[in-house]
Design brief:
The protein is an alpha+beta fold. It has four helices and four strands; from the N terminus they run αβββαααβ. Bound molecules: FE2/S2 (inorganic) cluster.
């Protein structure tokens, strides 16, 4: 399957049936992400146990790409420690923003996000959930895409 087909199929599927939609009660931590260009907002909740992500959920409203990216992210990061999350986030950032970046096979379904780089105005949509989870882990309560 090429990147365009993967992009279309995976983004459509995760937008239609978002995984891990909902909230987590304290002691889980949460952060709000906001895309000022469109006004879309989402909140990401994460439970951490000794630096390991044991659960993650999100809620909010946004475009298909932001919702699908959040859904894909929640599936991918459960069980990772925060360093592994940071490495995965860096890899996703590269795939989203560098036209010449190879899309590592290890990304699995997340490779679909590589299709977003064909649409530079949507990179912020795809980044929103990732930056919000990063903020939550860092102890910040909100993040705005720049
Ligand atoms: Fe608002 Fe994509 S258009 S996050």
């Amino acid at each position: 399957m090429d990147l365009k087909d993967l992009y279309r199929d995976v983004i459509l599927d995760h937008n239609k049936r978002p995984r891990n939609l909902g909230t987590l009660a304290p002691p889980a931590i949460g952060a709000k992400g906001h895309n000022p260009l469109c006004g879309d907002q989402l909140t990401v909740y994460v439970s951490l146990d000794h630096g390991q992500i044991t659960d993650v959920k999100f809620e909010g409203s946004g475009c298909a790409i932001s919702m699908a990216s959040a859904s894909l992210m929640t599936e991918a990061v459960k069980g990772l420690d925060t360093e592994a999350f940071a490495r995965l986030h860096a890899s996703i950032h590269d795939v989203l923003t560098r036209h010449d970046a190879e899309v590592p096979a290890a990304l699995g379904k997340l490779a679909a996000l590589g299709g977003v780089r064909e649409y530079p105005s949507r990179v912020k949509c795809a980044s929103l959930a990732w930056r919000t989870l990063e903020a939550a882990i860092a102890g910040a309560v909100s993040v705005t895409t720049e």
